[in-house]
Design a protein that fits this description.
The protein is an all-alpha fold. The protein has 2 domains: 327 residues, Up-down Bundle (Na+/H+ antiporter like fold); 41 residues. Helices cover 70% and strands 3% of the residues. The protein is built from 18 helices and 2 strands. The protein has a two-stranded antiparallel sheet with strand order 1-2. It is globular. Belongs to the NhaA Na(+)/H(+) (TC 2.A.33) antiporter family. It comes from uncultured Sulfurovum sp.
Length: 446
């Protein structure tokens, strides 16, 4: 009997792109939680000053007379997070082409729920912060952290139907798209025309490469770097370059899957004609057959799918945890935490992420179902959708990101925002999990 190493067991288990995505997001959620705890411990320990100083170290890139200099914090938020946004772009593209958003009848519910889950929290925030300098942060409670939300559902296992998980994924992706548009339109500095035009030129070149059938990743990588740099110089937040670049990546295979199936079957039949117990291993012809099949697999795959597959773990295990470590560390004075929570910014975010998300997501979903505009996710109940609406109130990553943009140069408001985000996300995640675990009734199996 052969004993398989863990990676061999994983290799033998075939995951669909959706299952692979869920696995990556649940991993992200667990690592993200760990790094958030580490950041909070560091920010409230004797190492607080060293922690703060570390992320403000300048890192320079110099080529001849050209120099690009930013703090480590800036490189993480504007540089590494562009890769995160690139992943969001690929996810949006996949969902629209072949995922939950490709079927209009299925997609209408998460789309409407996501819109409700963005508009209502923003309105609640504005009603609480009206007339204060914090009102510019209305985009903060619009976001949903897909990694934390998916992690909560994964912990529930078979207690929630797959269609409900797909509903949350589609909702969060539409939510991400809304957040990207808000950042691009409302949280953009003074726009510099020439760099923006050059960024547009890079994007058009990427589109042209796609149209001409260029599937090699290197040309898109080089043009993507230039696109990011020109976007950085234009005043539009540089991370938007990631989403734009993702739209230009080819997502159609070079050859039809049907022809590959026929060719690979013929090659495997030939491979099986050779002795299986050859002491010298494979002969030259068998090696040639495997290389030919490898080429075929590459041709029926797409650059978009390959990039999403290769980047999901680096994003999950490196980029998002680094972002949390750099941004979640807030110094908490427990003697004044109560007064911080009741500030307009904190209260606006807490009310927006908890009440706003539940009213917006569940309220719009309930109305759409009652009016027969949309249908419940298969095997789900309205009670379960209510629990998912609470999970939509876990803002975290994107909310912190928007807070840094909305309150740029105002550390006090950023602090109040982060207190509100952490408090609301913790409460929403806890209530959503408890509701789905112990209160929501599953649909009886027929």
């Amino acid at each position: 009997m052969r004993i398989y190493a863990p990676w061999e067991k994983t290799f033998k288990k075939v995951l669909t792109p959706f299952e692979h995505f869920l696995h990556a997001q649940s991993t992200t959620g667990m690592v993200l939680m760990l790094m958030t705890i580490v950041a909070l411990i560091l920010a409230n320990s004797p190492l607080a000053e060293a922690y703060k100083h570390f992320f403000h170290i300048n890192i320079d890139f110099v080529v001849g007379d050209w120099k690009l200099s930013h703090t480590l914090h800036h490189w993480i938020n504007d540089g590494l997070m562009a890769i995160f946004f690139f992943m969001i772009g690929l996810e949006i593209k996949r969902e629209i082409q072949v995922g939950e958003l490709s079927n209009v009848r299925v997609a209408i519910l998460p789309i409407l729920a996501a819109i409700g889950g963005m508009v209502v929290p923003a309105l609640i925030f504005l009603s609480i912060t009206a007339g204060t300098e914090g009102s510019s942060g209305w985009g903060i409670p619009m976001a949903t952290d897909i990694a934390f939300a998916i992690s909560a559902l994964v912990l529930l296992g078979n207690r929630v139907p797959r269609a409900l998980v797909a509903f949350l994924v589609a909702l969060a992706i539409v939510d991400d798209l809304g957040a990207v548009l808000v950042i691009a339109i409302f949280y953009t500095e003074q726009i510099q025309t020439l760099p923006l035009m050059l960024a547009g030129g890079m994007f058009l070149l990427m589109i042209a490469f796609n149209r001409f059938g260029i599937h090699a990743i290197l040309p898109y990588f080089i043009l993507g770097l230039f696109l990011w740099y020109f976007m950085l110089q234009s005043g539009v937040h540089a991370t938007i370059a990631g989403v734009i670049a993702a739209m230009a990546i080819p997502s159609k295979p070079k050859r039809a899957p049907g022809s590959f199936r026929e060719d690979s079957k013929a090659l495997l039949d030939e491979y099986d004609t050779y002795p299986k117990d050859n002491p010298d291993g494979m002969n030259e012809r068998q090696k040639a057959i495997l290389f030919k099949m490898q080429d075929g697999i590459h041709e029926i795959g797409t650059p978009a799918a390959r990039l999403e597959h290769k980047l999901d773990l680096p994003v999950a295990l490196i980029i998002i945890p680094l972002f949390a470590l750099a941004n979640a560390g807030i110094s908490i004075d427990f003697s004044s935490i109560g007064s911080t929570i009741v500030t307009p910014v904190s209260m606006g975010i807490i009310a927006g992420l908890i009440l706003g998300k539940v009213i917006g997501i569940f309220g719009v979903a309930w109305l759409a179902i009652k009016l027969n505009i949309a249908q419940l996710p298969e095997g789900s109940t309205l009670s379960q959708v209510f629990g998912v609406a609470f999970l939509g109130g876990i803002g975290f990553t994107m909310s912190i990101f928007v807070a840094d943009l909305a309150f740029l140069g105002n550390p006090q408001l950023i602090f109040e925002a982060k207190v509100g985000i952490l408090s609301a996300s913790l409460f929403a995640g806890f209530v959503g999990y408890i509701w789905l675990r112990f209160i929501a009734k599953a649909k009886p199996k027929s």
